[in-house]
Amino acid sequence: MRERVDPEELLRELTPQVLGALARRHPGQFDACEDAVQEALIDAAAQWPRDGLPENPRGWLLAVASRRLIDDWRSESSRRNREDEVAALEPDESRLPDLAEEDPGARDDSLRLLFLCCHPRLTPPSQIALTLRAIGGLSTDEIAAAFLVPEATMAQRISRAKQTIRRAGGEFTMPAAEERGERLRAALHVLYLIFNEGYTASAGAQLRRADLSREAIRLVRMLARLLPTESEVTGLLALMLLTDARRDARADEAGDLVPLAEQDRGRWDREEIEEGMALVDAALRRGPTGPYQVQAAISALHSEAPSAEATDWPQILALYRVLDQLDPSPIVTLNRAVAVAMVEGPEEGLALLVTLDGDERLAEHHRLAAVRAHLLEMSGDPIAARDGFREAARLSTSLPERRHLERRAAALDEE
Amino acid sequence: MKYMLLIYENPGTRETFSGEAGAELMATLNEIMDEVTKSGELVGTQALADPSTAKSVRLGEGSPAITDGPFAETKEYLGGYLVLDCDLDRAVEVAGRWPKTGTGGIEVRPLMNTSGEDV
């Protein structure tokens, strides 16, 4: 008896395996292979729920996608009236692996695919779009809806991304050993951006976009199975789970943001927290330590604290100092300033913020003003804090954040 | 991030695009539109009809007051817009390449979004 499987879930799971196998057989044809797999997915989505799952779903998809690929070449070629070209392109059936067999190359295929989709010549929006389509198995209109752009815009972006890869000579091969670390970091960053796009949307009523965080978690889980000893992959999975665990508590019914200190910790997802904490422990023990593991460790300290006051702030501050060494950025400094304020007092935190004044990367960014206002409020200067929250509200381009900052300013007006 | 490029014109702007002299300006314009379309950055674009065709609806106490013409009489007025999904540098770069016509110009403004970071 076959276990009951959700056809849609299975399709998404099989997407990178099928595309990987196809791209490996047809070198230099990634663009056409990717289109063929999308067409096979559409066929399967129509047929499987109606007719039941085929005996070998992976083989079914691969066969349909191969046929689509050859059909496309045939029609292309008949337009040009060059039949002999098709003969050269058609795969030699005797070289095809037995479709019923589990393909031992599938593991590397998914990795090669991820590295190709996160090619350094692509912009982050293109890397994200291509990853979601080629590896996540999402359709163009689903990706367009998630990023709130017209389908035509997303279709252009994906098609341009594939052209760029072809022009850059991007091959469906494993990057050289010396390049792999850099390529893996880029891929993790793309998955992190996908997660964040979904997670930050969960403050509004945009459930379709919030699904992006689930999708990112699914993809990082896949990557963690492929690379079980890469501690940063484990660290990123832990960070996503620990962050996602707070999703239901981070906004109230009106969609207004609830600060961490005021969240109902009973609404945090304990199962996700436990899994995330176990993962970050394992990753840190294995090493080498990287920024995602440290961020996950900070998140874990919040997760296990019974309240904001009972949080282990000295430990969080120590971890922010580690993060500042590993991956310095003005945002890390901002977060460190909050931890400094909690441990050493708001004046110390404010002194650290002064070092960010004039930092071009934060110019016109609302977060510096928002954090400063928060620390001014802690230090007992409500007038300056109120002005700071107002300034931050003006600079913010997020409606929920702006509402939150305006509320904080208004609360100080009443005092 | 999405940015709106607000294109400000003056009464002579549209005319400069017609005739032989305008062909070069049109070519530049088409080149930009083609580029942002093919790159998958263009979210939407519209040109507006002349401000003399506008109705202004002023809201206050009682029923709204409706008058012919634009809300405020200014030398430069909004002639159309582009929405691009890109970063700020790129939005400013595209705006800087817009064909030069008279005293007009382009204002680049971020669109508000409904996502919110943790606070």
Name the CATH superfamily classification of chain B: Dimeric alpha+beta barrel
Low-confidence stretches of chain B: none
Query: Biggest interface and its residues per chain?
Result: A-B, 38 and 22 residues
Assembly form of the protein:
heterodimer
Using only C-alpha atoms, the radius of gyration of chain A works out to 25 Å
Residues in helix, % of chain B: 25-40%
The fraction of residues assigned to DSSP E strands of chain B is 25-35%
Mean pLDDT of chain A: 89
Q: Low-confidence parts of chain A, pLDDT < 50 over ≥5 residues?
A: 92-101
| Number of continuous helical runs of chain A | 19
Q: Count all strands of chain B and give the number.
A: 6
CATH architecture annotation name of chain B: 2-Layer Sandwich
Mean of residue pLDDT of chain B?
91
Strand residue content of chain A: under 5%
Query: What is the overall number of helices of chain B?
Result: 3
Q: Output the CATH topology of chain B.
A: Alpha-Beta Plaits
Query: Measured on Cα atoms, how large is the radius of gyration of chain B?
Result: 17 Å
| Beta strand count of chain A | 0
Helix content of chain A: 55-70%
Indicate the CATH architecture of the domain at 333-415 in chain A.
Answer: Alpha Horseshoe
- Coarse morphology of chain B: flat
